[in-house]
Design brief:
The protein is of the alpha/beta class and about 270 residues long. It folds into 2 domains: about 1-65, Tetrahydrodipicolinate-N-succinyltransferase, N-terminal domain (Tetrahydrodipicolinate-N-succinyltransferase, Chain A, domain 1), CATH 1.10.166; about 80-265, UDP N-Acetylglucosamine Acyltransferase, domain 1. The protein has helices spanning about 1-15, 20-35, 55-65, 90, 255-265; strands spanning about 40-45, 50, 70-75, 75-80, 95, 100, 105, 110-115, 115-120, 125, 130, 135, 140, 145-150, 155, 165-170, 175, 180, 185, 190, 195-200, 205, 215, 220, 225-235, 235-250. Strands 5-8-11-14-17-20-25-26-22-23 form a 10-stranded mixed sheet, covered by helices on one side. Strands 6-9-12-15-18-21 form a 6-stranded parallel sheet, with no helix packed on it. α1 packs across α2 (about 20-35), α1 packs across α3 (about 55-65) and α2 (about 20-35) packs across α3. The protein starts with a helix and ends with a helix.
């Protein structure tokens, strides 16, 4: 792995090395390892997520060494540099037409893709449902047994290299048309109600206690979140700008599905 990293870093600093077969093979090997889930763009180490910049560099370098090619799937045609994933049945992944997953993304056993899109570098763990017209952007990390409802948008990020990808931890539920971008991390077992939008600058305010507690870029575990607004003064007057409100916590339970249903009923969250 250290040899691969050295070759990627060298090619990043000297693009002429992309002409060398050894360099091209190293880049292709890194993407193949991403595709198999043996490497990932970001990984949790003792509860702390670490972004591996050299792997992101390999993904970026993969584009210039690829040629545009015609991709035919039955009566459908595509024209792109990155091939599509194949052999879903051997991987234990259910893929409903017209779901698309690009080569270099990883889908663990038990993942279900309704008509949706998963980009290169993304990692989706065991038992997660990606519902209709949901998108999982490049390098995004989605945990085990999550549910991304219809129209959910998980942002992708390749550059800047130091930028963290969007991270959705295990057992999360994202309601319809949620948008999570700019490296936001959603803690395990959190519930985002329909239309919640989280960016790197969105104020996420816990209003469940006597005094508000504000977060940015992070939703604590088991939080139940709904869309909200805050007044902001502009030269022409005071207007409402979007925020997100934490209105309570999912109760710990060994039966996570039961816990989720209870949270949705208790807080009357639209999904």
């Amino acid at each position: 792995m250290s040899d691969l990293k050295f070759q990627i870093e060298s090619a990043w600093n000297d693009r002429d090395l992309l002409k060398n077969p050894e360099t091209r093979d190293a880049i292709s090997e890194v993407v193949a390892l991403l595709d198999k889930g043996l490497l990932r763009i970001a990984s949790p180490e003792s509860g702390v997520w670490t972004t591996h910049e050299w792997i992101k560099k390999a993904v970026i370098l993969y584009f210039p060494i690829r040629q545009m090619e015609l991709i035919e799937v039955g009566p459908f045609q595509f024209y792109d540099k990155i091939p599509l994933k194949t052999n879903f049945h051997k991987q234990g992944v259910r893929v409903v037409p017209h779901a698309i997953a690009r080569y270099g993304s990883f889908l663990a056993e038990g993942v279900i893709l309704m008509p949706s899109y998963v980009n290169i570098g993304a990692y989706i763990d065991t038992g997660t449902m990606v519902d209709t017209w949901a998108t999982v952007g490049s390098c995004a990390q989605v945990g085990k047994h999550c549910h991304l409802s219809g129209g959910v948008g998980i942002g992708g990020v390749l550059e800047p290299l130091q930028a963290s990808p969007v991270i959705i931890e295990d057992h999360c539920f994202l309601g319809s048309r949620c948008i999570v971008v700019e490296g936001v991390r959603v803690g395990s077992e959190a519930v985002l109600g329909a239309n919640v939008v989280l960016t790197g600058s969105t104020k996420i305010i816990d209003v469940s206690g006597e005094s508000p507690v504000e977060y940015k870029g992070y939703v604590p575990p088991r939080s139940v979140v709904i869309p909200g607004t805050l007044p902001k003064t502009f030269p022409s007057g005071v207007y409402q700008v979007p925020c997100a409100l934490i209105i309570g916590q999912r109760k710990p339970s060994t039966d996570l599905k039961t816990s989720l249903n209870q949270a949705l009923r208790e807080f009357d969250v639209a999904v």
